[in-house]
Design goal:
Elements (H helix, E strand, L loop, with lengths): L4 E4 L5 H13 L2 H9 L2 H18 L2 H32 L5 H5 L6 E7 L2 E10 L9 E9 L8 H15 L4 E7 L3 H9 L3 E6 L3 H6 L3 E7 L1 H5 L3
Parallel strand pairs: 4-5
Antiparallel strand pairs: 1-2, 2-3, 3-4, 5-7, 6-7
């Protein structure tokens, strides 16, 4: 594991943090595209449309061209929700990270430095509509630069959130990830998070089969105090 240092976000980190977040989201487009290709309805369309065009017009060129157009459309479809999510976050909580995450004691935003550069990020905010009797902290925007993966930064950042939650008296840490974010999902499950739900973030993700998975980590103090 390469040496790293985790600290609170500073305004001088802003450009690097936003770049890491945006790149981390956009890199899931190919996996979403491949997932969409595996859906039965996609296979049916890619088979039926060219055959129909071939039978009607007798043109192999038109039939093959239709598949190319359909694949381009599928790529644009897979790209749209990720870019939409990036824009939404840049206009909401990431528009002013200090105001969103560092104004109150119960929230925070961290960066992981490796080799003198910001190589990872994660944020945490209290859940406003938590179930009665539970004090929940939600983990947001975990992302590690591609060149620094495998160094343990992701695990270290998640541990930082868990330690912060325990110190602030939270009973649970919750988060959401997607089906195509397999590396992140595997990390969370190995660290003790449990799946609590699943839904589709948008109609496009439903069409492509990319579900959002909800996870929860019960802090030891909460577990020990339970029945």
């Amino acid at each position: 594991m390469a040496p790293h240092h985790i600290r609170k976000y500073q305004e001088t980190d802003r450009k690097r943090v936003l770049d890491l977040f945006s790149q981390g989201m956009v890199e899931h487009i190919p996996a979403t595209f491949c997932l969409g290709l595996k859906m039965p309805q996609t296979f049916l369309v890619l088979l039926v449309v060219p055959v129909a065009l071939l039978l009607v017009y007798g043109s192999w060129l038109l039939a093959l061209g239709s598949n190319v157009i359909l694949l381009v459309f599928l790529w644009m479809l897979a790209r749209h929700p990720w870019r939409q999510y990036v824009v939404m976050c840049l206009q909401t909580d990431l528009a002013d990270i200090n105001k969103s995450y560092l104004r109150d004691r119960g929230s925070c935003f961290w960066v992981a430095e490796s080799g003198g550069h910001v190589a990872g990020i994660v944020g945490a905010l209290p859940v406003e509509d938590a179930p009665p009797g539970r004090k929940q902290l939600q983990l947001f925007h975990l992302s590690v630069a591609l060149e620094h993966r495998g160094e343990g930064l992701g695990k270290a950042l998640v541990m930082t959130v868990l330690q912060f939650a325990r110190a602030q008296g939270y009973s649970e840490v919750v988060l959401e990830t997607s089906m195509v974010q397999q590396d992140a999902l595997t990390l969370y499950l190995r660290m003790g998070f449990q799946k609590t739900g699943e839904y589709f973030f948008s109609k496009v993700f439903r069409l492509l089969g990319n579900s959002t998975i909800q996870l929860k980590y019960c802090l030891p103090s909460a577990q020990e105090g339970g029945p």
